[in-house]
Amino acid sequence: MLKEKKIFVLDTSVIIYDHMAAKSFKEHDVVIPITVLEELDNFKKGNDTKNFAAREFTRYIDKISDGNTLQDWININGKGHGMIKIEMHQDSKIDAEKVFGERKADHRILNTALYVSDNFPDRKVVLVTKDINLRIKAKSLNLNAEDYETGKIKDVNEQLYTGRSEISKVPSELINEIYEKGFCESAALLKKQKPKSNHFYVLKNGSKSVLASYNPAKDVIERVKKVTAFGINPRNAEQAFALDAILNPAIKLVTLQGVAGTGKTLLSLAGALEQRKDFHQIYLARPIVPLSNKDIGYLPGDIKSKLNPYMEPLWDNLKYIKNQFNERDREYKQITEMVEHEKLVVCPLAYIRGRSLSDVFFIVDEAQNLTPHEVKTVISRAGQNTKIIFTGDIYQIDTPYLDSQSNGLSYLIDKLKDQNLYAHVTLEKGERSELANLANEFL
Prior knowledge:
Structural class: alpha/beta
Distance between the termini: 52 Å
Number of strands: 17
Radius of gyration: 25 Å
CATH class of the largest domain: Alpha Beta
Strand order of the largest sheet: 3-4-2-1-5-6
Shape: elongated
CATH topology of the largest domain: Rossmann fold
Number of domains: 2
């Protein structure tokens, strides 16, 4: 039986999220409303991800048109795959602008989708958008609407990799062996089960326990020791695992996921400072997500004044580490000198775009506010002797078109688990204060 061939109408938010989205619909056809091209034209200037996506998509459309008019159906991926066209018409039987009482781009896109539905009554027409409100409006007009699912993790609560396990009733001899030798053969603990690379374990037998991790290069379970990094001590097993991954030179990419107060950024920065002699620079960056989704140009003051509120949480972590020492201590002075000589740089993530990151320890905070493409862009900048740490909370997202399933941090954790160069730890226990834990648990 032949599969029903659908028509997917793409909204601007989908193109901004993934500029190659048109290729993701297999044998189905894709329609791009002319309003989407108009909106993308407004985004083409600038260095932000949305500007890059707008430019790349328009180049792609120009390339595949190749002598055809864009009102013709054009093959997307060659024979056997779907077709694409730009739809100029918006004169549907139902006028969304009249229904909702406002002339705006979203309603023109709805009208285009309704026009396509009117003209192809025998085919299922679906509006694809990352905008929840637009999906609701479409459904209220009896129009099929869906989120863009490519790259989404189906069930983050059940399926997203945590990077750690607890095993009870481990033979006492094995725990003793790990303490005495520093490791044991993986087969002795896990039998025929193949562990994931750099996976962490809490091994228990009654009151006895040991922290360990799987070393894929040696195929052994190694002991994880609680070590101090630049005055910061791990306060629980999760933090010990995170710091072990951060300090391990064989691991080049680390993700730390957890709620506020679990120590993600603090541990990353402490680990970076501990290894300061191994890297030329330490970068601590985060994406800028302005309030009400407005550009920071709306804020008063010069560029430094505009950016300070967004960067302040990163400086707070640095101050906390400095305060572990006296002003006369060598470590205190080293941090001050590193900032002054730009060996330690705190900046917006956008400032890194286009640069090659060689001999750098790079911490990306609030990574849940990045798209999968943005995460890939950051990692692809890594040169020789570069280590990257992504930290964030996948349930605390500030950008309008991302959620816990589709953000770049969730995507990264899901796609790279079991890679030798990668480690992940989900931190659950808050260590900031009893008051912060109370808020996280009950509010």
